[in-house]
C-alpha cells in the first residue's frame, strides 16, 4: 500500500503488454448505481479530445516539466469541481478489470498501483465511484470538468503533481478504447475514470467517463 512508501527504489511495474488485454474492457466500477435526480453530469462536446490530432500530438505539453521519480499517490484534488479525497492503492479485480476503492466510503479514490506513479513519465490512472448505495460518490461530478481545469495529486514523498485537463469523454464499456486511454504518450500524463453514460438497474452504467490530463507543474 502507498502508506508503506519509504522512498526506496521504484517498484517493479507490469509492462503495458501484460495488462493491455485486461484494461481494454474498461473499469468495473459501480454496477448497481442509485437513482439520483438527473444522474451524474456527462461530458460536454466542447470538452472532447481534439479529433484533428492523434493522442500523442494532443497530449504534447506546452512547456517541458521534469518528470518526478516514483512515489505512490496519497490524495487527489480537483478544485474546479470541489473534489478533495484521499487515495488508496488498487489493483485488478477477479475479472481482470482495474478495481475500485471500497464503495462504503463515498469520498475515496484509488490509484492503480501496478502502473505509473502520478508525475512519472507515462500514464498514471486514478479511479473512483460515481455513486454508492447511499447516493453520489467522489467522482459524481467528474463529467462536468472542462479543458483547462486542474487535477492535483499529492504523493507520499510530499511532492504534488499538477495536471491540466485537455479532454473529457465518455466511452462505452463494450467498445472501450484501452490503447487510446492508457497508452504512453511519451509525457507524464494522468487519466481519471469513473462510470458514466446510460444507466439501467439491470446492467448499471453503460460507459466510463475518462479525463485526459497532462503534467504542467510540480511542487
Query: So what's the overall shape?
Result: globular
- Which bin fits the share of residues in helices? under 10%
**Main β-sheet, in a few words?**
8 strands, mixed, barrel
Strand line-up across the major sheet: 1-2-3-4-9-10-8-7
Q: Order of helices and strands, N to C?
A: HHEEEEEEEEHEE
The number of strands is 10
Q: In oligomeric terms, what are we looking at?
A: single chain
Class by alpha and beta content: mainly beta
- The average pLDDT is 82
Strand content: 25-35%
Based on CA atoms alone, the radius of gyration comes out at 16 Å
Which regions contain 5 or more consecutive residues with pLDDT less than 50? 1-26, 28-36, 52-58
Short description:
The protein is mainly beta and 219 residues long.
Notable traits:
two-stranded antiparallel sheet, eight-stranded mixed barrel, disordered N terminus, 8% helix, globular, 219 residues, mainly beta
Structure report:
The protein has 219 residues and is mainly beta. It is 8% helix and 35% strand. It contains three helices and ten strands, in the order ααββββββββαββ. It has helices at residues 16-23, 55-58, 178-182, and strands at 73-78, 83-90, 109-112, 122-128, 131-132, 135-136, 150-155, 160-172, 188-200, 204-218. Strands 1-2-3-4-9-10-8-7 form an eight-stranded mixed barrel. β1 (73-78) and β2 (83-90) form a beta hairpin. The longest helix is centred in the N-terminal third of the chain and has 8 residues, at 16-23. The chain is globular, with a radius of gyration of 16 Å.
Amino acid at each position: 500500500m502507498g502508506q508503506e512508501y519509504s522512498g526506496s527504489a521504484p517498484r517493479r511495474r507490469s509492462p503495458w503488454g501484460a495488462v493491455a488485454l485486461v484494461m481494454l474492457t474498461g473499469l468495473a466500477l459501480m454496477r448497481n448505481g442509485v437513482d439520483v435526480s438527473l444522474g451524474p453530469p456527462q461530458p460536454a462536446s466542447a470538452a472532447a479530445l481534439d479529433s484533428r490530432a492523434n493522442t500523442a500530438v494532443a497530449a504534447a505539453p506546452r512547456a517541458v516539466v521534469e518528470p518526478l521519480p516514483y512515489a505512490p499517490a496519497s490524495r487527489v484534488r480537483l478544485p474546479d469541481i470541489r473534489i478533495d479525497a484521499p487515495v488508496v492503492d488498487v489493483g485488478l479485480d477477479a475479472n481482470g478489470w482495474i478495481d475500485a476503492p471500497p464503495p462504503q466510503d463515498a469520498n475515496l479514490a484509488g490509484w492503480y498501483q501496478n502502473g505509473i506513479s502520478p508525475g512519472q513519465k507515462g500514464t498514471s490512472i486514478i479511479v473512483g465511484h460515481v455513486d454508492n448505495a447511499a447516493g453520489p460518490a467522489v467522482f459524481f461530478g467528474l463529467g462536468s470538468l472542462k479543458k483547462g481545469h486542474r487535477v492535483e495529486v499529492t504523493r507520499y514523498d510530499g511532492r504534488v503533481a499538477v495536471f491540466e485537463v485537455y479532454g473529457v469523454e465518455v466511452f462505452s464499456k463494450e467498445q472501450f478504447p484501452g490503447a487510446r486511454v492508457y497508452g504512453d504518450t511519451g509525457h507524464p500524463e494522468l487519466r481519471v475514470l469513473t462510470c458514466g453514460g446510460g444507466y439501467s438497474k439491470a446492467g448499471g452504467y453503460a460507459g466510463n467517463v475518462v479525463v485526459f490530463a497532462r503534467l504542467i507543474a510540480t511542487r
